[in-house]
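Regression check, zinc ion case 60:
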Amino acid sequence: MAGSRGGLECPVCGLPVEVPDDAVDGEVLEHECGSMLEVVRRNGVLELRPLEGVQEDWGE
Ligand SMILES: [Zn+2]
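Current build output:
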């Protein structure tokens, strides 16, 4: 699964997320599923993580 360049998945719903090419670390995007996603830039690689505070209890 290496090489996720150009496409990130929503960690909540698993659907593709369009991330601006100039997205910066800490930027918050709202996905179409209603989740708020924080952009994390690590070693030049963008990742997405659910923004704390809006997570729902969706089981284990
Ligand atoms: Zn989503």
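Comparison notes: The chain has no helices and five strands. The pocket of zinc ion is lined by residues 10, 12-13, 15, 31, 33, 35 (CB under 6 Å). No diff flagged against the previous build.
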